[in-house]
Amino acid sequence: MKPIEDDFSLCLPAKPARKKLYWFGLWAWLWLALLSCPAATAYQIDSVLRTAGGGAPLVSSVQTFGIPNVPAGQQVTFSFGFATDEDLLSGSFWDAATVTLREVLSGLTEQFVTIDRTGVYWAPSNPGGLTLSPDLITRTAIAFPTLSSTPSNQWAFTVSAPVPVEFQGKTVELYLDLFDNQNAQQSLAWISQVPEPNGWWLALTGGACWCTLRRLKPWNS
To answer: What pTM value is reported for the model?
Structure first.
């Protein structure tokens, strides 16, 4: 007869209770997965930038947050928009907005998007920084929000883009830059508040815990 302290099965609940625990753990895992996915439509505007026509040629807003030091697969999610009164005959270059993720200590950058009157350019060329495939950026066109004195040509998107492994466990800054070509035609850019990325690590942690419990004692034993 085995000593009581060596019989691990005595530490487990009866089989009906174990089945209930199994289903509870499964649904908790799925719920955590849903919570870890940022909402695609809900956002709160963090800042609105406008050209001044003769003011500073570049105006910026910045949000600072930390990237968890967890396995790869994290995403940074934000909504942003650009609007301009410029037309395609305004000149050889136009007002433009760019969204960039920058690691604070190294200064390494990853550019997500540049937009001007001619269109939207996903993952543009980023000399000296990280390169990103446009296909890795998930974007959905959304309605332009109601703002005062909004120019006529408008674009707005919700964006989810991968966080590079070089930024894991680091403090980063998300920049919105608005370039002003100094003409008299108005342009503006806005960006939403950015929740700190949590990726799927909550769901994966829950799944790992469930698998561990599952292996400790088969349900049919």
So the answer is: 0.72
